[in-house]
Amino acid sequence: xxxxxxxxxxxRSFAVAAVLCLVIAAALGRxxxxxxxxxxxxxxxxxxxxxxxxxxxxxxxxxxxxxRGLMYRTSMDGNHGMLFDxxxxxxxxxxxxNTFLPLDIIFIGDNxxxxxxxxxxxxxxxxLISSVAPVRFxxxxxxKKARLMHLKIGDTVRNxxxxxxxxxx
Length: 169
Prior knowledge:
Elements: H1 7-35, E1 41-48, E2 51-60, H2 63-68, E3 80-90, E4 93-94, E5 103-108, E6 114-121, E7 129-130, E8 135-142, H3 145-148, E9 156-158, H4 160-166
Parallel strand pairs: 2-3
Antiparallel strand pairs: 1-2, 1-9, 3-8, 4-7, 5-6, 5-8
C-alpha cells in the first residue's frame, strides 16, 4: 500500500484537529472555572440595626465545595459572598490557607441568627477560626463588610436555604 500526500486531506485533518483542540480547551476552561467555585448564586439579606443589606451568595453545600470555599480567588464583587451549609449544626472551624482575600467570616445558627463574627480574617493564614457555639451556616464576605453594616451577634440572616432550616417562610 502506498501513501501519498494530499494537501486537501492534510488541511482538512488540520482543521479537524484544531477544532478538537478548541473544544477540549473550552471544556477544560469551564472545568477550571467550576473548580474555582463559581456556583450559581442565591439572594441573601442581612438585617442589622443600620438596615437590610442584600448579597448574591454562592452556596457551598458539598464537601468539595466547602473545602474549596473562596480559595485562590483574587477578587470578589462587593455584593458577593459565599454561604456554607455545613449540613448539620455543630461547632465550625475555618482557616484562610490559600485564600488570598481578607474576609469577614460570619457564623450563623440554625435559627438564622448571627452567632459570632470573625472580622478581617488574615489571608493565607493557617490560624484556626472557630465559631463560639454550634452553627449550621457560615457566611464569607469581603473584609470590613460586617463593620460597615454594623452587624452584631443576634442579627438576622435571610436566605431561602436558611429560612427553610429555621422554619421561616
